[in-house]
Write a structure and sequence with these properties.
single chain, alpha/beta, Rossmann fold, 6-stranded parallel beta sheet, 6 helices, elongated, DUF218 domain-containing protein, Rossmann-like_a/b/a_fold, Cell_Envelope_Assoc, DUF218
Length: 224
């Protein structure tokens, strides 16, 4: 009888803390989604910012951008050509000589007609959090339009605004993508992780470095 009472007590505690964790998980998720939606723009809206921050995604060994990344770069190029941003900041993973997102993003934007001096590259954007911290601390970005897919946009915008950037977002969904359900589910955990990062741990990015103002010449960030 005593063992059963102990087991029942442990089950109640487990259920209580599980419920509490789920409540926190979905409350934070809802908060970040609603905040991101409140600062979302349409490309045709009237606005102006220093730069479009283009978040990286998979690039093949041959240098082919995945569909999501093609759409992000094309959306940012359209914003530049319409005069709504003055620079493009390509941020992604260039952590080794064998994998390079940002140079291929830059080359694609140049192919679409963007002057090379107006393209900045963040070679150490290894996560959304790192990209936003580095945008503020390294590239001195004060105002930006963040360009990524709709599922990713609320988290990126939330992080940027929490760091003091005047950030808004434009969704770059121009195709139907594979794995939409997986991406949405993954974002619930990612939003909670970055909520804790922003408001509690505030970790430093993997790399920082000297300031390179987004108002200058982007070629100083080019390595090729």
């Amino acid at each position: 009888m005593g063992n059963w009472l102990l087991i029942r007590s442990l089950i109640k505690k487990l259920l209580f803390f599980t419920g509490l964790a789920l409540f926190f998980l979905f409350t934070v998720n809802s908060h970040i989604k609603s905040t991101g939606e409140a600062h979302r723009l349409k490309p045709e809206d009237n606005f102006k910012a220093q730069t479009a921050i283009v978040l990286g995604a998979y690039v093949s060994p041959q240098g082919q951008l995945c569909d999501m990344l093609v759409d992000r770069v094309q959306t940012a190029v359209d914003l530049y050509k319409s005069g709504k941003v003055e620079k493009l900041l390509m941020t992604g993973d260039h952590g080794s000589t064998t994998y390079d997102e940002v140079n291929h993003m830059r080359l694609y934007a140049e192919k679409l007609g963007i002057p090379t001096e107006d393209i900045f590259m963040d070679h150490a954007g290894f996560s959304t959090y790192d990209s936003m911290v580095r945008a503020v601390e390294v590239f001195c970005v004060q105002s930006a339009v963040i360009v990524t897919q709709e599922f990713h946009l609320p988290r990126a915008t939330y992080i940027a605004r929490s760091l003091g950037m005047e950030a808004r977002g434009v969704a770059a969904d121009r195709h139907l993508y594979r794995g939409v359900e997986y991406n949405e589910a993954r974002e619930i955990l990612a939003r909670n992780k970055d909520f804790v990062n922003v408001h509690l741990f505030q970790p430093e990015p993997k790399f920082l470095g000297p300031a390179i103002s987004i108002t200058g010449d982007g070629r100083q960030t080019h390595d090729q």
